[in-house]
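Weekly sync, protein design subgroup
Attendees: M.S., D.O., the rotation student, P.L. (late)

Item 1: inverse folding check
M.S. brought a backbone from last month's batch and wanted to see whether the design step gives back something sensible before we order anything. D.O. pointed out we never logged the input encoding, so this time it goes straight into the notes. Structure tokens as presented (133 positions):
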């Protein structure tokens, strides 16, 4: 009887660990050192933009990144605008097909699109950069 109870607890612990293993999923990653429009990507709300920028000449760098509807080209909001190296995250609560419009000068950049669960989204707050809707 005790062995059976122990097995049940072990199985429950394994299921709980698997359920909490983090459903955070990398959808797309983009990087570069020049201005461009990225390829389109499809994502469901909620999702996260994890960004990082740096430069060999930080006093001369500048970058702005906008989120654009891939189908219509409509501007959905600014992801970041900075003249300094840095990083941050931006939580997006809209599903669809999007692309990034990157305007970069003397900057190396990386953008990750990360799918989240509702529970994971509750843990995130905006960090870094100037953002608007």
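Designed sequence read out in the meeting:
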């Amino acid at each position: 009887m005790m062995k059976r109870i122990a097995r049940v607890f072990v199985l429950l612990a394994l299921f709980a660990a698997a359920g909490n293993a983090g459903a955070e999923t990398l959808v797309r990653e983009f990087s570069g050192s020049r201005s461009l429009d990225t390829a389109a990507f499809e994502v469901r709300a909620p999702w996260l933009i994890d960004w990082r920028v740096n430069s060999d000449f930080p006093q001369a760098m500048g970058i702005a990144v906008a989120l654009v509807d891939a189908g219509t080209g409509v501007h959905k909001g600014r992801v970041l605008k900075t003249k300094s190296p840095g990083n941050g995250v931006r939580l997006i609560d809209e599903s669809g097909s999007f692309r990034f419009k990157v305007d970069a000068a003397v900057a190396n950049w990386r953008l990750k699109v990360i799918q989240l669960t509702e529970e994971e989204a509750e843990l995130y707050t905006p960090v870094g950069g100037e953002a608007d809707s």
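Discussion: Strands lie at 25-32, 36-37, 41-43, 47-54, 62-69, 75-82, 86-92, 96-105, 108-115. The helical segments are 2-19, 118-121.
Action: P.L. to compare against the previous round before Friday.
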